[in-house]
Amino acid sequence: MQEDLRDNQFKKIKVIGIGSGRGGGIGPHLAKAIEGCDVVFAGRYAKLVIDGLIEEGLLNQEITANIRPLPLPVSDGVKELLRLQEAGRAVGVLVSGDPLFFSLGNYILKQIDREKIEFYSNATIAQAAFSMLKLPMNEARIISLHGRDIKNVLPYAFLNRIIGIYTDLENSPSKIADIILKKTDTPDRFYMYVLEAIGLGSKERVYSLTLEEARLKRFFMPNFVVLKNDAPLKYPVFGLSEDCYRKDTDDKVPVTSQEVRSVAISLLLSRNGCESADSEALTPVLWDIGAGAGSISIETASFMPFGRVFAIEKDDKRAGLIAENIRRFSAFNVDIIAQDAPSCLYDLPSPNKVFIGGGGRRLASIMECVFKRLMPDGVMVISCVMLSSLNAAVSFFKNKGIGCRVIGLNVSRSKEIADDIYLKAKNPVWLVTGRKT
User: Fold this and answer.
1) Which pTM does this prediction carry?
2) Range 127-229 classified under CATH 3.30.200.20
3) Domain boundaries 242-435, corresponding CATH code
4) Distances, alpha carbon 75 to alpha carbons 35, 48, 78, 113, in Å
5) What is the tens place of the pLDDT at every residue in 282-328?
């Protein structure tokens, strides 16, 4: 029985981590595991490390002579691993660092029964990077951009004091710097370290850069980024005075009033909104149609940092002011759509929250398009100042057989007169809310 167990253990697919950093690579224990395999594959990034170690004379070529690239796409590579295992071959696959820390081992584990796999861990590039920089890794957030949208870096960059980033050929340090610079007018809060070819002898480089410097530089692969932020954002941002937002000099670009904005955002976030503030698994999408100066977009976005907000504004001048306000508040998850609704709505991700602050005579057609795209249980909030708009919004929901809620806001603000104060009324606003069932 003991012998059978050893034989079964030997036949397991060996997922072997190639260490990063000085003194990393392949030690005697891992070399023995590789030598015990009939067939050994290497993942894309492990192959880069292996080639670099061989070139620098840091790895015995005899150990790696029979290593072949893992077939791509990776799904085909996994099928090949299983085929060889079922044929009774001893199979190994080399991956970078710890196989289950932002590495190929995660994908393999999802595709193959865990009883058929054996993992051999090693030092990760993140561990090596933080040690080289003399920074405590336990205080950092580590993320990976391998095969992911580069925008995923933004909430981590703006909300954390220090993060480590696994890059790839597409999501390079220069592109990371560029996308952050586009979302802030205070870039001096950030500082970037780029570590190239860690553990690969003469190729190893460590750069300390501003974002502007990093944006203009090209880097050798593989590399790793450590990003420091001296002033992480304190979210959420809510109920700001209109004066906090940039407006044009003649004050014709509307900023939704503080009182109306606060109520509207509470309606948008009702039931399904607030939980998104801390959950990366949820990806709420807001359309702000007729965004004006962007105040609804910016403040709602701060409650859902892992969501996406589309500020839709056809007027070029207003769209420019939205861009300024995005940078002012570092509203990293707000994108401007400087096009006309409803025609521009068809190519956007389906929303679960929609605010309509404009539309005029096309309000009904905009609501019809929104309703078709709105996710189940999604909420629509329509701001009306004209009685015709109020009637159109209420009639729309009634015709759809959906109940709606109307809130009338009559706001007065104090004004000084002589040695006294009086209340000056603002135009009434109605907020019409409906939820798609």
Assistant:
1) 0.85
2) no
3) 3.40.50.150
4) 25, 20, 5, 15
5) 589 999 999 999 999 999 999 999 999 999 999 998 999 999 999 99
